[in-house]
Amino acid sequence: MRAWVLLSAVLWYLTGVGWQRNSERTEKGFIYGKPGHPVKLYVKLHHNSPILVCMDLKCAEKETVDPTYLWVGPNEKPLTGNNKINITKTGKLMVKDFLEPLSGLYTCTLSYKTVQAETQEEKVVKQRYDFMIFVNPFAPGWKGKCNESVDCQDNTNHNILQARNRIEEFFRSQAYIFNHNFNNTLPAMHFVDHSFQIVRIDSCHPGFGKNEGLHSNCATCCVVCGPGTFSPDVDVTCQTCVSIQIYGAKSCP
Prior knowledge:
It is a single chain. The chain is an alpha+beta fold. Helix content is 13%, strand content 31%. The chain is elongated and about 100 Å long. The model is unreliable at 1-22 and 139-143 (pLDDT under 50). InterPro entries: Ig-like_fold, Sp38-bd, ZPBP1/2_C, ZPBP1/2_N.
Protein backbone atom coordinates (compact mmCIF):
# COMPACT_ATOMS: atom_id res chain seq x y z
CA MET A 1 0.00 0.00 0.00
CA ARG A 2 1.05 3.64 -0.21
CA ALA A 3 0.73 6.36 2.37
CA TRP A 4 0.16 10.05 1.72
CA VAL A 5 1.82 12.41 4.18
CA LEU A 6 -0.39 15.46 4.61
CA LEU A 7 1.40 17.98 6.85
CA SER A 8 1.83 16.03 10.10
CA ALA A 9 -0.98 13.59 9.41
CA VAL A 10 -0.46 10.23 7.73
CA LEU A 11 -3.36 9.08 5.56
CA TRP A 12 -3.28 5.70 3.89
CA TYR A 13 -3.60 5.29 0.17
CA LEU A 14 -4.69 1.78 -0.77
CA THR A 15 -3.33 0.59 -4.08
CA GLY A 16 -5.28 -1.59 -6.43
CA VAL A 17 -4.19 -5.14 -7.03
CA GLY A 18 -3.05 -6.89 -10.18
CA TRP A 19 -4.98 -9.87 -11.49
CA GLN A 20 -3.72 -13.11 -12.91
CA ARG A 21 -2.61 -12.89 -16.53
CA ASN A 22 -1.63 -16.51 -17.13
CA SER A 23 -5.04 -17.94 -16.36
CA GLU A 24 -8.17 -18.25 -18.39
CA ARG A 25 -11.15 -16.78 -16.62
CA THR A 26 -14.76 -17.27 -17.67
CA GLU A 27 -17.71 -14.93 -17.22
CA LYS A 28 -18.80 -17.02 -14.21
CA GLY A 29 -15.52 -16.22 -12.49
CA PHE A 30 -14.09 -19.73 -12.84
CA ILE A 31 -10.30 -19.92 -13.14
CA TYR A 32 -9.12 -22.65 -15.51
CA GLY A 33 -5.63 -24.09 -15.52
CA LYS A 34 -3.09 -24.01 -18.34
CA PRO A 35 -1.02 -27.15 -19.01
CA GLY A 36 2.64 -26.50 -18.31
CA HIS A 37 2.04 -22.97 -17.03
CA PRO A 38 1.39 -22.26 -13.32
CA VAL A 39 -1.51 -19.88 -12.83
CA LYS A 40 -0.83 -17.09 -10.31
CA LEU A 41 -3.68 -15.67 -8.25
CA TYR A 42 -3.82 -13.00 -5.55
CA VAL A 43 -6.55 -13.40 -2.94
CA LYS A 44 -7.64 -10.77 -0.43
CA LEU A 45 -7.18 -11.58 3.25
CA HIS A 46 -10.26 -13.14 4.89
CA HIS A 47 -11.97 -13.55 1.51
CA ASN A 48 -12.78 -16.66 -0.49
CA SER A 49 -10.56 -17.59 -3.40
CA PRO A 50 -11.94 -17.70 -6.94
CA ILE A 51 -13.28 -21.08 -8.04
CA LEU A 52 -10.40 -23.08 -9.51
CA VAL A 53 -11.27 -25.64 -12.16
CA CYS A 54 -9.19 -28.79 -12.56
CA MET A 55 -9.26 -28.50 -16.33
CA ASP A 56 -8.24 -26.16 -19.13
CA LEU A 57 -10.71 -24.43 -21.41
CA LYS A 58 -9.85 -26.60 -24.39
CA CYS A 59 -10.49 -29.76 -22.40
CA ALA A 60 -13.69 -28.32 -20.96
CA GLU A 61 -15.14 -27.89 -24.45
CA LYS A 62 -15.09 -31.62 -25.12
CA GLU A 63 -16.63 -34.57 -23.33
CA THR A 64 -14.44 -36.49 -20.90
CA VAL A 65 -15.11 -40.09 -19.94
CA ASP A 66 -15.04 -41.10 -16.26
CA PRO A 67 -13.06 -38.06 -15.07
CA THR A 68 -11.47 -38.07 -11.60
CA TYR A 69 -9.78 -35.19 -9.81
CA LEU A 70 -7.02 -35.15 -7.20
CA TRP A 71 -6.17 -31.87 -5.48
CA VAL A 72 -2.92 -31.51 -3.51
CA GLY A 73 -2.29 -28.53 -1.23
CA PRO A 74 0.83 -26.51 -0.31
CA ASN A 75 1.76 -29.12 2.29
CA GLU A 76 1.94 -31.70 -0.52
CA LYS A 77 -0.93 -33.68 0.99
CA PRO A 78 -4.20 -34.54 -0.78
CA LEU A 79 -6.95 -32.04 -0.06
CA THR A 80 -10.33 -33.06 1.27
CA GLY A 81 -13.41 -30.97 1.87
CA ASN A 82 -13.59 -29.20 5.24
CA ASN A 83 -14.58 -25.85 6.72
CA LYS A 84 -11.76 -24.15 4.77
CA ILE A 85 -11.64 -26.21 1.57
CA ASN A 86 -14.62 -26.72 -0.72
CA ILE A 87 -14.15 -29.34 -3.47
CA THR A 88 -17.02 -30.28 -5.76
CA LYS A 89 -17.58 -33.60 -7.54
CA THR A 90 -16.66 -31.89 -10.81
CA GLY A 91 -13.20 -30.93 -9.58
CA LYS A 92 -13.79 -27.30 -8.65
CA LEU A 93 -11.88 -25.93 -5.65
CA MET A 94 -12.50 -22.87 -3.48
CA VAL A 95 -10.51 -21.89 -0.39
CA LYS A 96 -12.59 -20.02 2.20
CA ASP A 97 -11.49 -17.16 4.46
CA PHE A 98 -8.02 -17.04 2.93
CA LEU A 99 -5.11 -16.45 5.34
CA GLU A 100 -1.33 -16.20 4.92
CA PRO A 101 -0.57 -19.87 5.82
CA LEU A 102 -2.91 -21.03 3.04
CA SER A 103 -0.65 -19.48 0.37
CA GLY A 104 1.35 -21.71 -1.92
CA LEU A 105 1.07 -24.26 -4.71
CA TYR A 106 -2.26 -25.99 -5.31
CA THR A 107 -2.00 -28.84 -7.81
CA CYS A 108 -4.77 -30.83 -9.44
CA THR A 109 -4.42 -33.96 -11.55
CA LEU A 110 -7.24 -34.71 -13.98
CA SER A 111 -7.58 -38.34 -15.08
CA TYR A 112 -10.00 -39.50 -17.76
CA LYS A 113 -10.42 -42.27 -20.31
CA THR A 114 -10.13 -42.16 -24.08
CA VAL A 115 -11.28 -44.90 -26.48
CA GLN A 116 -9.49 -45.71 -29.72
CA ALA A 117 -12.06 -45.67 -32.53
CA GLU A 118 -10.52 -48.58 -34.44
CA THR A 119 -9.58 -50.96 -31.63
CA GLN A 120 -11.99 -49.74 -28.93
CA GLU A 121 -9.01 -49.87 -26.61
CA GLU A 122 -9.31 -47.71 -23.48
CA LYS A 123 -6.48 -45.49 -22.34
CA VAL A 124 -6.19 -43.38 -19.18
CA VAL A 125 -4.98 -39.81 -19.78
CA LYS A 126 -3.62 -37.66 -16.97
CA GLN A 127 -3.10 -33.90 -17.00
CA ARG A 128 -1.67 -31.75 -14.20
CA TYR A 129 -2.65 -28.14 -13.47
CA ASP A 130 -0.76 -25.85 -11.08
CA PHE A 131 -2.20 -22.81 -9.29
CA MET A 132 0.05 -20.53 -7.20
CA ILE A 133 -2.11 -18.64 -4.72
CA PHE A 134 -0.79 -15.65 -2.79
CA VAL A 135 -2.59 -13.55 -0.21
CA ASN A 136 -2.80 -9.79 -0.57
CA PRO A 137 -4.44 -7.19 1.69
CA PHE A 138 -6.24 -5.74 -1.33
CA ALA A 139 -7.19 -7.86 -4.31
CA PRO A 140 -9.66 -8.04 -7.22
CA GLY A 141 -13.14 -7.17 -6.04
CA TRP A 142 -12.24 -4.23 -3.77
CA LYS A 143 -14.21 -1.78 -5.91
CA GLY A 144 -17.43 -3.61 -5.12
CA LYS A 145 -16.75 -3.11 -1.41
CA CYS A 146 -16.61 0.68 -1.62
CA ASN A 147 -20.29 0.93 -0.83
CA GLU A 148 -19.78 -1.13 2.32
CA SER A 149 -16.52 0.29 3.65
CA VAL A 150 -14.24 3.29 3.21
CA ASP A 151 -11.30 0.91 3.30
CA CYS A 152 -10.71 0.95 -0.45
CA GLN A 153 -8.81 2.97 -2.99
CA ASP A 154 -11.34 5.34 -4.51
CA ASN A 155 -12.93 6.45 -1.25
CA THR A 156 -9.58 6.85 0.47
CA ASN A 157 -8.04 8.83 -2.38
CA HIS A 158 -11.13 11.04 -2.55
CA ASN A 159 -10.94 11.82 1.16
CA ILE A 160 -7.22 12.58 0.99
CA LEU A 161 -7.57 14.91 -1.96
CA GLN A 162 -10.58 16.57 -0.34
CA ALA A 163 -8.52 17.17 2.80
CA ARG A 164 -5.72 18.67 0.71
CA ASN A 165 -8.15 21.00 -1.08
CA ARG A 166 -9.69 22.15 2.20
CA ILE A 167 -6.30 22.89 3.76
CA GLU A 168 -5.28 24.76 0.62
CA GLU A 169 -8.51 26.77 0.72
CA PHE A 170 -7.92 27.55 4.41
CA PHE A 171 -4.52 29.11 3.69
CA ARG A 172 -5.93 31.00 0.72
CA SER A 173 -8.81 32.44 2.74
CA GLN A 174 -6.55 33.31 5.67
CA ALA A 175 -4.21 35.19 3.36
CA TYR A 176 -7.16 37.19 2.02
CA ILE A 177 -8.45 38.00 5.53
CA PHE A 178 -5.01 39.06 6.80
CA ASN A 179 -4.43 41.29 3.80
CA HIS A 180 -7.86 42.97 3.66
CA ASN A 181 -9.47 42.98 7.11
CA PHE A 182 -6.74 43.98 9.53
CA ASN A 183 -5.69 47.35 8.06
CA ASN A 184 -2.09 46.24 7.78
CA THR A 185 -1.78 45.84 11.56
CA LEU A 186 -0.58 42.27 11.09
CA PRO A 187 2.22 41.02 8.84
CA ALA A 188 1.10 40.25 5.30
CA MET A 189 0.39 36.62 4.46
CA HIS A 190 0.92 35.32 0.95
CA PHE A 191 -0.16 31.96 -0.47
CA VAL A 192 1.10 30.70 -3.83
CA ASP A 193 -1.46 28.62 -5.69
CA HIS A 194 -0.54 24.94 -6.17
CA SER A 195 2.35 25.25 -3.71
CA PHE A 196 0.73 22.83 -1.23
CA GLN A 197 1.83 19.26 -1.98
CA ILE A 198 1.26 15.72 -0.78
CA VAL A 199 3.95 13.04 -0.71
CA ARG A 200 3.57 9.32 -1.32
CA ILE A 201 5.25 6.85 1.03
CA ASP A 202 5.44 3.25 -0.17
CA SER A 203 4.85 0.61 2.50
CA CYS A 204 3.37 -2.85 3.17
CA HIS A 205 1.95 -4.60 6.22
CA PRO A 206 4.43 -6.70 8.26
CA GLY A 207 4.73 -10.10 6.61
CA PHE A 208 4.17 -8.62 3.15
CA GLY A 209 6.40 -7.10 0.50
CA LYS A 210 6.77 -6.25 -3.18
CA ASN A 211 8.77 -8.23 -5.70
CA GLU A 212 8.49 -7.17 -9.31
CA GLY A 213 10.53 -10.14 -10.51
CA LEU A 214 8.44 -12.78 -8.76
CA HIS A 215 5.09 -11.02 -9.17
CA SER A 216 5.51 -9.24 -12.49
CA ASN A 217 1.77 -9.36 -13.15
CA CYS A 218 1.14 -7.64 -9.81
CA ALA A 219 4.31 -5.54 -9.44
CA THR A 220 2.76 -2.83 -7.24
CA CYS A 221 1.01 -5.33 -4.94
CA CYS A 222 1.97 -6.02 -1.35
CA VAL A 223 2.13 -9.82 -1.51
CA VAL A 224 2.67 -12.22 1.39
CA CYS A 225 6.35 -13.03 1.99
CA GLY A 226 7.11 -16.59 0.91
CA PRO A 227 9.13 -19.31 2.70
CA GLY A 228 12.71 -18.21 3.29
CA THR A 229 11.75 -14.54 3.68
CA PHE A 230 10.14 -12.23 6.23
CA SER A 231 9.20 -8.58 6.78
CA PRO A 232 9.16 -7.27 10.38
CA ASP A 233 7.77 -3.81 9.70
CA VAL A 234 6.11 -1.67 7.00
CA ASP A 235 9.03 -1.93 4.58
CA VAL A 236 8.25 -3.04 1.03
CA THR A 237 10.99 -5.70 0.91
CA CYS A 238 10.80 -9.27 2.18
CA GLN A 239 14.19 -10.01 3.78
CA THR A 240 15.98 -13.34 3.48
CA CYS A 241 15.85 -15.87 6.34
CA VAL A 242 16.59 -19.44 5.24
CA SER A 243 15.10 -21.03 8.38
CA ILE A 244 11.57 -19.75 7.65
CA GLN A 245 9.27 -22.35 6.09
CA ILE A 246 5.94 -20.49 6.23
CA TYR A 247 4.21 -17.68 4.38
CA GLY A 248 3.73 -14.27 5.99
CA ALA A 249 6.59 -14.44 8.49
CA LYS A 250 7.16 -11.26 10.50
CA SER A 251 10.42 -12.25 12.17
CA CYS A 252 13.47 -14.46 11.62
CA PRO A 253 13.96 -17.07 14.37
